[in-house]
Amino acid sequence: MFMFEKAITGGRRYWTWIGALCAVVALGVFAYSRQLNQGLAVTGMNRDVTWGLYIAQFTFLVGVAASAVTVVLPFYLHDYRAFARVTILGEFLAIAAVVLSGLFIFVDLGQPSRVFNILLHPSPASMMFWDLLALGGYLALNAAITLVTLSAERRDVPPPGWIVPVIIVSIPWAVSIHTVTAFLYSGLPGRPYWLTALLAPRFLASAFAAGPALLVLLCLAMRRLTRFDAGDAPVARLGLIVAYAMTAHVFFVALELFTVFYARIPGHMDAFVYLFAGIDGRAALVPVMWTSVVTGLAALGLLLVPAARRRTRLLAAACGLALVSLWIDKGLGLVVGGFVPSPLGAVTEYLPTLTESGITAGVWAVGFLLVTVFYKITLEVRREA
Fold first, then answer.
1. Can you tell me the distance from the alpha carbon of 316 to that of 302, in angstroms, rounded to the nearest whole number?
2. How would residue 245 be classed by pLDDT, with cut points 50, 70 and 90?
3. What angle do helix axes 232-263 and 312-328 make, rounded to 10 degrees?
4. Can you give the pTM of this predicted structure?
5. Domains of the chain
6. What are the residues facing 89 on neighbouring strands?
7. Which stretch of DSSP H or E encloses residue 216?
8. CA-wise closest residue to 97 among 327, 316, 299
9. What is the spatial distance between Cα 348 and Cα 277, in angstroms, rounded to a whole number?
10. Cβ neighbours of residue 69 under 8 Å, at least 6 residues apart?
């Protein structure tokens, strides 16, 4: 197998981390076995709220996968050599994010075998069909790119010329996967909260903030825990990308708020009222959504100050706050806001159960396990080279 022998060597700290992740994965498998046995009744989902924490994670992670374009495009098309050490890390992060997206769709299905219906009975009229096609193609593209470029790096030779068109194709493909995901929501006319042409741009802006923010934190963690240092220049430039993308994200949300409340659109307005003020005393998500607002504005305030971005701890804090804000806004806020109130005006609240949280933690642990293995292989190859 492709250089996986390099992932089975490491010190006590490395294997402790792997063991901890495997323990969380085992917890997730146990929780999923309970869900598989008893059905989705063990989750917080109900007749009115049919998507929950799983689909929220799916939506967020597709954005993380798409964000690889923020390092691929400058490095390959504009020859920005400062990204030479982090580009493949971004591509590996995208691979892990796509795998996790698929896993969250899998656990969201009451009958997992139903996932094969998309393959056995393809329907071009379904956005889910196109989303599967986009994600599968993107996974294949990134797998080919990382395999070829890392193999060339191991042999200390330039990558073959045929990989360049593959890389170029992967750039618009990255944009397409999150655009199609946005269409899954905005194509539903019965859900006013999602029925906006601005949803796809909002998705892309938040993706281009979340992905680089996560990559910054991973680079800083590797600098502290390993002998790998991505360098100050790429980390600083990633921080600048996060600043620009967060600015665009906040601007798009402000546009949405103006349109909804100035035009007094009832269905769309009710979703915002429920999320940020509650309706008829039902306000389970109000503290969570205001946490998203506060952390997002705090992150933006830090990111827009160049002196703060140059300080490693402040940059890490800003990226962490941005991730929390976007994970809430694009996760529970987006999904639940589309379902509550229902088209008939019913306010049925949703909160994840312990079973859902355990399964979600297990899937995320799989992702961190993949990233750990991928990055370990990359660092070992570079150390040998």
1. 10
2. very high
3. 40
4. 0.93
5. 10-380 (1.20.1630.10)
6. none
7. helix 199-225
8. 327
9. 15
10. 170, 171, 174, 175, 208
